[in-house]
Amino acid sequence: MPKGSxxxxxxxxxxxxxxxxKLYQTMGFREITMKDLSSATSFTRTSIYNYFQTKEEIFLxxxxxxxxxxxxxxxxxxxxxxxLTKEAxxxxxxxxxxxxxxxxxxxxxxxxxxxxxxxPERLKEFKAVYGQSLQSVRACLDKFFxxxxxxxxxxxxxxFFPFMFGIYPYTFVTEKQRAAMEEAGVNYVxxxxxxxxxxxxxxxxxx
Length: 207
What we know:
The chain is mostly helical. It contains 11 helices and no strands.
């Protein structure tokens, strides 16, 4: 790691993460290379390695940032509401994920690759923020549904978080995928991130 203030180091990391985010809008995970990232930043490819040793670490940092943004949205939802019905909670909770399509896309398509290709210290940083997201959802349940037992809250969390991995594939499809399902006679209903999340959260609370 080159010498410099923590602020400068963080700013340089953010520039690299921002470049990754921009490239990911039009390119796939496997298509993006360190050379592409270098071209999209003010760094040489060698300089990028001073901050991230692999492409997977950069994507993991982007995913970490997306989790942090979701955590902030959950905090706002909790602070702005004194009480919520099950339906209102499902609505507002689904709205927080509706804005996080990138979070859902990365975690559903590239999660294993990112964790496998990242150093332990980078993985630890990510897991800390992931753990905060678990705590944030539990805090929401603690405030709005105090009648739920600890076991019920745990069941909610450990049902919903694995469910999140499937939200993006069920709500975003390519024309190739759509055509294949039509030709195969698959009677499939396409839902939005909001719709699929709302339905899941509402049913979990009702059960």
